């Protein structure tokens, strides 16, 4: 009977885990492995681009790739994990509950926006965290055109000045002009609890973000927190009132709640602590990867971030190691020493940095070309060609 590797999730980490596991199985001729991906739909949703327009196009089908590599697919949403019985229970599109057994399980269900208990947040704030919510936000922007031109209609408040908030805020001036015309005065305001713009970044990167924000007319409210959100705007804890018909929440993410069913230590983002093989120590038959895993990237104290850059490599190592464990092959310790940042800054351009110290290497048009190459090409699935896909899935091959 074939040994079962079950991968839950078809995002960056889940997709690459499946391809990497299939690669090692192919190298070991005569293997007895079956690799299965369980996810709602067989597609990669290009989440890093959800701040852009035409979000419905930002998906990549995986059917042909999986068929070419002999990867099975189950359409369903995982709901319960029985680690003792090595079984995952899932619900399909018709609401029917079924189960899938595994010998090795790879958890790759990603992350979600963290939504604190703020008055009105659930009812009045948009987000671009998932494809469906980003589509709702885009339709809302389209609907504003039919409304009278008021300060509230023409103002968007972005709650949170992290990576997603910055990319969305700097893209929004162009998106609003495309709808309202060049002559309409619009505002984009970022509400950030930190004392400086881009507080988690290097000084050079912070300065670049500030320069782009000023050039684009993006305003920042620093040292500020949201008290309440309603249909007409937001109220800050300092008492300031910002009229707005469009409030977008981008402040923080946390690991998918599915991993709460697994015994193990977690970090403050809900990610499972894993060893260097990406196994959950309390459950050696379970691997956590992508945004589900708190993993060391090197020997000097850095850990993987919740980005597709890290998710892709984590997936390759997790898939390889899950297959290796069933083929009696030594696993690869996860390492990802190189780190880059490429931040889209809308019509101003972009900024590209290298290293954990975030040394700025290029800005504006030059950096924009790098950003487009990454998000429009590099992070997409490989071609449905076994040679090409397996070469790309080698965990030891250079990614960036």
How is this structure best described in words?
The protein is of the alpha/beta class and 400 residues long. It folds into 2 domains: 3-112 and 253-338, FAD/NAD(P)-binding domain; 115-249, FAD/NAD(P)-binding domain (3-Layer(bba) Sandwich). Helices cover 28% and strands 27% of the residues. It has helices at 12-27, 63-69, 121-124, 131-143, 163-180, 203-216, 308-326, 364-378, 386-392; strands at 3-8, 33-39, 43-45, 59-61, 72-75, 77-82, 87-91, 97-101, 104-107, 111-113, 125-126, 155-159, 187-191, 218-221, 226-230, 233-236, 241-243, 246-249, 253-255, 272-273, 279-280, 283-288, 293-294, 340-344, 350-354, 359-363. Strands 5-2-1-9-22-21 form a 6-stranded mixed sheet, covered by helices on one side. Strands 11-18-12-13-14 form a 5-stranded parallel sheet. Strands 6-7-8 form a 3-stranded antiparallel sheet, with no helix packed on it. The radius of gyration is 22 Å and the shape is globular. The model has no long low-confidence stretch (mean pLDDT 96).
How would you summarize the topology of this molecule?
Blueprint: E1 3-8, H1 12-27, E2 33-39, E3 43-45, E4 59-61, H2 63-69, E5 72-75, E6 77-82, E7 87-91, E8 97-101, E9 104-107, E10 111-113, H3 121-124, E11 125-126, H4 131-143, E12 155-159, H5 163-180, E13 187-191, H6 203-216, E14 218-221, E15 226-230, E16 233-236, E17 241-243, E18 246-249, E19 253-255, E20 272-273, E21 279-280, E22 283-288, E23 293-294, H7 308-326, E24 340-344, E25 350-354, E26 359-363, H8 364-378, H9 386-392
Parallel strand pairs: 1-2, 1-9, 2-5, 9-22, 11-18, 12-13, 12-18, 13-14, 20-23
Antiparallel strand pairs: 3-4, 6-7, 7-8, 10-19, 15-16, 16-17, 21-22, 24-25, 25-26
Helix pairs in contact: 1-7
């Amino acid at each position: 009977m074939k040994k079962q590797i079950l991968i839950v999730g078809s995002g960056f980490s889940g997709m690459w885990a499946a391809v990497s596991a299939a690669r090692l199985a192919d190298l070991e001729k005569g293997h007895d492995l079956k690799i299965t991906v369980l996810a709602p739909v067989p597609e990669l949703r290009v989440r890093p681009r959800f701040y852009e327009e035409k979000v419905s196009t930002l998906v990549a089908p995986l059917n042909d790739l999986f068929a070419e590599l002999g990867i099975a697919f189950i359409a369903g949403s995982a709901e319960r994990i029985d680690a003792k019985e090595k079984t995952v229970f899932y619900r399909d599109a018709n609401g029917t509950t079924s189960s899938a057994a595994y010998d090795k399980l790879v958890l790759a269900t990603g992350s979600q926006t963290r939504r604190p208990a703020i008055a009105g947040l659930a009812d009045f704030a948009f987000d671009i965290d998932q494809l469906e919510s980003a589509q709702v936000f885009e339709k809302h922007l389209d609907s504003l055109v039919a409304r009278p031109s008021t300060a509230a209609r023409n103002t968007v408040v972005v709650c949170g000045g992290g990576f997603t908030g910055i990319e969305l805020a700097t893209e929004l001036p162009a998106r609003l002009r495309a709808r309202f015309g060049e002559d309409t005065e619009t505002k984009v305001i970022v509400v950030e609890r930190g004392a400086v713009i881009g507080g988690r970044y290097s000084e050079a990167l912070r300065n670049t973000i500030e320069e782009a924000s000023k050039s684009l007319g993006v305003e920042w409210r620093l040292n500020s927190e949201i008290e309440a959100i309603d249909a007409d705007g937001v109220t800050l804890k300092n008492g300031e009132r910002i009229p707005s018909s469009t409030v977008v929440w981008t402040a923080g993410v946390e690991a998918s709640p599915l991993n709460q069913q697994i015994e193990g230590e977690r970090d403050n983002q809900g990610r499972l602590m894993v060893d260097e093989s990406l196994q959950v120590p309390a459950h050696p038959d379970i691997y956590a990867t992508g945004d589900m895993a708190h993993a060391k990237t090197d020997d000097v104290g850095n850990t993987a971030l919740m980005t597709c850059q890290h998710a892709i490599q984590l997936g390759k190592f997790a898939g390889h190691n899950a297959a290796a464990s069933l083929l009696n092959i030594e696993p690869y310790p996860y390492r990802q020493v190189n780190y880059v940042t490429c931040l889209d800054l809308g019509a101003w351009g972009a900024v590209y940095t290298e290293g954990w110290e975030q040394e700025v290497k290029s800005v504006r048009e030059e950096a924009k070309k790098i950003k487009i190459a990454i998000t429009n090409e590099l992070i997409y699935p490989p071609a449905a060609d076994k040679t090409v896909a397996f070469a790309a899935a080698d965990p030891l091959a250079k990614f960036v």
